[in-house]
Design goal:
The protein contains 9 helices and 8 strands. The protein has 225 residues and is an alpha/beta fold. The protein starts with a strand and ends with a helix. The strands form 2 sheets. It has a 6-stranded parallel β-sheet.
């Protein structure tokens, strides 16, 4: 039985209308005079720090701790601004699926497993009234590597629950191959959803436990039993 459910954010819980990418672009342009800094960079399933690092290195800038801090301080400002300007919404089935998780006979703890820095995750999910559901997780500012983040999120979830979680007690939900990979790295069950850039057929190649079109297509009880 699943005791901890870890959700990815972008393309899994919400679609922001590109607010995150646009906030990256604005921050590089306004703070570092680097317009177009993220052109050609694949954001899918990656951590914010790894994207920032790649953008700096492409422009020949050594990514120091101070550079990261300046970037994040301005990024969260632009992110909040753009979320209010762009059309976005929770992905199909998300709110009902979360409600169903809360109403299981033994509700699991809900957490996040995301490449977003923690404050960025909070800003995004508060905007869509979803932050209140999540009580633990692993975030981009914990580590640049998604697989390491999965281990961090599992450990924190276990500490919150007060138990060392077995592999079968953890479910990871995501929309990219990297989400599947990081779930598999901790031997968790993995539910892949086709609400991001990839179809269920494309995601199935990476052998998740389930691959569905969206969270309307499968029940909370089925994946948590």
């Amino acid at each position: 039985m699943v005791r901890l459910v870890l959700f990815d954010i972008d393309g899994t819980l919400i679609r922001t209308g590109g607010a995150g990418v646009k906030a990256f672009e604005r921050t590089f342009a306004t703070e570092f005079n680097l317009p177009g800094a993220v052109e050609g960079i694949n954001f899918s399933g990656r951590t914010d720090p790894s994207i920032v690092r790649e953008a700096f290195l492409r422009r020949g800038i050594t990514p120091t701790e101070q550079h990261f801090q300046v970037f994040y301080d301005r990024y969260v400002f632009w992110l909040d601004e753009l979320l209010h300007q762009l059309d976005g919404a929770p992905c199909p089935g998300v709110e009902t699926f979360i409600d169903d998780l809360h109403h299981l006979p033994k509700p699991p703890v809900l957490g996040l497993l995301t490449g977003n820095i923690r404050l960025g995750a909070e800003i995004k999910l508060r905007h869509y009234n979803l932050w209140r559901h999540f009580h633990t997780g692993g975030f981009g500012d914990d580590h640049e590597d998604r697989n390491t983040l999965a281990a961090i999120a599992k450990k924190r979830g276990g500490e919150l629950i007060g138990a060392r979680l077995s592999d079968d007690e953890v479910l990871v939900i995501g929309d990219t191959a990297r989400d599947i990979e990081c779930g598999q790295a901790i031997n968790a069950r993995v539910l892949a959803v086709g609400t991001g850039l990839y179809s269920p057929d494309q995601l199935s190649v990476h052998k998740p436990t389930w691959a569905v079109a969206d969270l309307c297509a499968i029940s909370a009880a089925e994946v948590c039993r």
